[in-house]
Amino acid sequence: MRQNRKSRPVSKTSASSIKWTFVKRFDSTEDCIKHLETKGHISIATSPHVKGKANSYLHEADYTEYAKLAVWFGNENRGITDLAVECREMCIAIPMFGMVESMNLGTSSGIVLYEITKQRRMYQSEYLRSRRRGKRLDPIPTEMLREDGSI
């Protein structure tokens, strides 16, 4: 008997990434925000239209200053909830050109998480755990070399 897609547990959805990813389901935005605040996370929202607090284009923001970061994504139809927007530290937008103002959730989350990861890897390659411990004597490479030694 085939299971309904909605009833499948998260652990059955992915082959192996669930082993390395923290997943927790919340019944409301309020519950999620309380949990994140208790754990010391800083929230940022993704939206092309949100005004107020700190707003930045994706590549202009610094994601290394927050140890624990929660990124909020809205869906294509409704966007992000007002409460999630109110509780955020900053709003980031993916710069886009032309008539289209937004992307689907899978595309936008991939782009945003890639930029955050790229910045954090560069930071980790240069600094020991925190800036208080100083720079590394031998920075960790951030680019993969080809067999011939070129980038």
3D architecture notes:
The protein is an alpha/beta fold and 151 residues long. The protein has helices at 10-13, 29-38, 82-86, 105-126, and strands at residues 42-46, 54-57, 69-72, 90-93. Strands 2-4-1-3 form a four-stranded parallel beta sheet, with no helix packed on it. The longest helix has 22 residues, at 105-126. The protein is globular, with a radius of gyration of 18 Å. The termini are far apart. Residues 1-5 have low confidence and may be disordered.
Distance between the termini: 50 Å
Number of strands: 4
> Radius of gyration, Cα only, in angstroms?
18 Å
The helix-and-strand class reads alpha/beta
Overall body shape: globular
Measured by DSSP, the beta-strand proportion falls in 5-15%
Helix content: 25-40%
Largest sheet: 4 strands, parallel
User: Number of helix segments?
Assistant: 4
List unreliable stretches of 5+ residues: 1-5
Helix-strand blueprint:
Elements: H1 10-13, H2 29-38, E1 42-46, E2 54-57, E3 69-72, H3 82-86, E4 90-93, H4 105-126
Parallel strand pairs: 1-3, 1-4, 2-4
Features:
alpha/beta, 11% strand, 4 helices
Short description:
With 151 residues, the chain is α/β, with parallel strands linked by helices. It is built from four helices and four strands; from the N terminus they run H-H-E-E-E-H-E-H.
